[in-house]
Design goal:
Layout (H helix, E strand, L loop, with lengths): L2 E5 L2 E5 L4 E5 L2 E5 L2 H5 L2 H17 L6 H17 L4 H13 L11 H16 L3 H12 L11 H11 L17 H8 E9 L4 E8 L6 H21 L3 E6 L2 E2 L2
Parallel strand pairs: 6-7
Antiparallel strand pairs: 1-2, 3-4, 5-6, 7-8
Helix pairs in contact: 3-4, 3-7, 4-6, 4-7, 5-6, 6-7, 7-9
Length: about 250
């Protein structure tokens, strides 16, 4: 069963799931994103991570962003025909990918991966899956990330797709920097996946009275480049559509 909901202008879908099964390492719990969402350590770390970034002037990187990246990452792989478990691992990696900001912004992808390495085995995940999730988390940054697996590729695209006014934490529009302005101008962002045509499209509706489209490219071009590489890894073409116009 697929549940459809709307979160902050984004249409997301998810699967209610908790299940247990035998694995090669014995009877282990099959860890799902539902387990991660209710894990007190992750909840606390996400709150702390977002608070640190808020002080530094960043957009939201807490539970809202984590949930959105989790859902989009899952949906990308599901619509492309990957196994349910592969999609579930993308959901888990997506939810945990920024938790390392609780330590420091610099190197946060590595910090997030190390936290996952500590938490996931404790919850019962087998080491092969832990390795997949760690790799996806550790490679999500555009500066140094590499789409080295299907899970990694999905998390990269999902993370870079979150451009929306609900991310802005600065309460004073007169003090917006370019990141605040571009995000606040985005009234809608949606990742459309066409499994038959093998196309992944990021659709944005931007209020050009708030921010010019060119400003989007000034700060997000590197994100679009790694998204294109990630889509290519998945055997897809990546497209960007702003206000109904396909830009590439």
């Amino acid at each position: 069963m697929i549940l459809k909901t709307e979160q902050n202008g984004h249409i997301v879908e998810g699967h209610p799931a908790t299940e247990e099964a035998e694995t090669d390492q014995g009877h282990q719990h099959i860890v799902t994103v539902a387990d991660i969402r209710k894990e007190p350590q992750i909840e606390a770390f996400l709150r702390g991570a977002n608070q640190q970034l808020k002080v530094l002037g960043y957009t939201e990187h807490g539970q809202r962003h984590a949930s959105l990246v989790s859902n989009i990452g899952h949906n990308i792989l599901e619509r492309l025909g990957y196994s349910k478990r592969t999609a579930d691992l993308a959901a888990i990696a997506g939810y945990m990918h920024d938790v390392g900001n609780v330590i420091h912004r610099d190197g946060h992808a590595l910090g997030s991966a190390i936290i996952a390495m500590q938490v996931l085995p404790r919850l019962g995940m087998n080491y092969d899956e832990v390795a997949t999730v760690m790799g996806a988390i550790g490679n999500h940054e555009e500066e140094r990330g590499v789409p080295s697996s299907e899970v990694t590729a999905a998390v990269i695209i999902a993370d870079k797709a979150d451009v929306h006014r609900s991310r802005v934490q600065n309460p004073d529009p007169d003090q917006f920097d370019i990141h605040d302005r571009v995000n606040f101008a985005s009234r809608r962002s949606f990742v459309r996946v066409d499994g038959d045509k093998r196309v992944i499209a990021l659709e944005l509706d931007i209020d050009t009275d708030i921010s010019r489209v060119m400003e989007y490219f000034e700060i997000f071009m590197s994100r679009m480049v790694i998204s294109r590489r990630a889509a290519r890894y998945l055997g897809c073409k990546f497209e960007l559509c702003i206000n109904g116009d396909r830009l590439f």
